Amino acid sequence: MIPVQAAAKRLGHQSMRFETAPAIIASASVVGPREGQGPLGRYFETVLEDERYGERCFEQAESRILKDAVNAALGAAGWQETELDALLSGDLLNQTVASNYAVRNTKMPFLGVFAACATIAEGLLVGASLLEAGLAARVVAAASSHHEAAERQYRYPNEFGAQRPPTAQWTATAAGAVALVVPATGCETAGLPRITYATIGRVVDCGQKDPYDMGTAEVPAAWDTLVAHFRETGRDPAYYDLIVTGDLARIGSEIFREGMRRRGLEVGSRHVDCGVLLYRPEQDVHAGGSGAGCAASVLASYILKEMRAGRFRRVLFIGTGSLHNPVSIQQGEAIPAIAHAVAIEA
Amino acid sequence: MIPVQAAAKRLGHQSMRFETAPAIIASASVVGPREGQGPLGRYFETVLEDERYGERCFEQAESRILKDAVNAALGAAGWQETELDALLSGDLLNQTVASNYAVRNTKMPFLGVFAACATIAEGLLVGASLLEAGLAARVVAAASSHHEAAERQYRYPNEFGAQRPPTAQWTATAAGAVALVVPATGCETAGLPRITYATIGRVVDCGQKDPYDMGTAEVPAAWDTLVAHFRETGRDPAYYDLIVTGDLARIGSEIFREGMRRRGLEVGSRHVDCGVLLYRPEQDVHAGGSGAGCAASVLASYILKEMRAGRFRRVLFIGTGSLHNPVSIQQGEAIPAIAHAVAIEA
User: Fold this and answer.
1) Nearest to B123 by CA among B134, B131, B115
2) Which residues 153-172 of A have a C-beta within 8 angstroms of B?
């Protein structure tokens, strides 16, 4: 057996420490009309007037909002498309076609990632790893979802008129993109959000079979990852100003907080959830938002803008994703879930 | 604008050099009956007697062959599941459920990747990056496909009886897994396959709309990546003993070789294709094999075993993937494709 070189920046079984602390130098978000009317409306770069966005189908509209978010992040970073070393992106559509079509015939080296609603967290984690390794200098992580496209490919088509129970989450029409670099040595970086740690999730399946209650299915994965994160980094919840999950929604969030308390890791009012933040209670989205674009757009707008403004300094961002598909549910399988955590500190 | 730290190991726009040259210390493959009867039959660890593999549906059978391949690679590497720092895996099923269910309730930190039939190449590339960064010490990259499950979720169900034209490729029932480490300094590594370079692909769409001719759709992406690879690394095709694509199949391979010749990059008899290698011409698979498990299983068996045996020393492995889905084809879109290249040298 070959003796293995130890990983100097590995902490325990799931966590990693980024010595270079890749910096988030720009981010951008594009959302649908309903999301624009939500409480975070003023934080988004672009709010669509309609869900089709001038495209001939919802799927192409999703590709376009993703492309617009990526291009807006590139613009805000001051980069040409040809300067980008890697785009990491994924979405809820089958075979992640929203991302695939968004970047076709561009010059962007592309790596497809998938973790359902946790996709942006995986993209940040992998993107930061490419930077840490010195294999890339300029990286963008992005993710998207589109309500109508997801209903067609991921749930039931709208025309079917399936009734939504109170536990159901509303797939957001939204895209978010985040630009990462390692700042040159000695340059002024005060106040810049940096990725300092990440914890890779494991797939947890507690037997929950209801795709209209994904928040609950994702909670055990969030617990699993956060218990590992705090143990392996030696931190506790009080270290962070903000512990952001995306997306457990209202019902999942309550169970999440209660379970953290029982594990001796009280998150209390530090905890917010992207699926709760994105809509007003009266917007008829039931338990809250979901979809790969929900966490991505909330991170790329509200969270990162308030970090740059100095309101939050230490944020733990936990993407949570349900890893089933409609066929697996019809086959009687439960919903496996995953949570990836990324520590972002200004 | 923040001054950006240059990436020391980046070569041009798409390529990367792995200074640590992560070593492939083990690999394993599990294939279906038809694949076992092909010319590579003796190279596979496990050949199924039937496509269901004792599971109640084809999708769960795919999860199981993937899990078996990963566990066999772990076993061959001498690792416990709890020692693994990251599994990178993906597959053709919607929302990559074969991978998701394969690892549920295991202890493996999991990162979902998707590049259709090029998934194993992306997994190797990202896995090697985690090692290069010192963020992980033990990584497995894997991918799978299953003929019947893919026909149901990715093409037409078998019961539909769609006629296959001669350009069609046969989705392989197969899984491959590859275990990577950075060997400790000073240890004996002679003959061990090492990942030395990689070139990240871009999404190329040349307007080809026929999902029964994916090899042809993928060829321009393969050209794009290989032109970049040779330009950015300063190598030429003659440097390599073997240039392996996966999967252009018979028709795509001819167009690929002709196009490389016209670009002044003659690959000639150095070129083989996983989709051509996997089946005998009389096995009625039309143009050849495809599916994320095709390239993964051929790499994990024939290619790596012959490298360890000293028959091949310098291999350029190019995963090629079609990035459409059935809905996008029905909507009149063409097939975007991607190719990721990984240089493996013993």
Assistant:
1) B115
2) 153-154
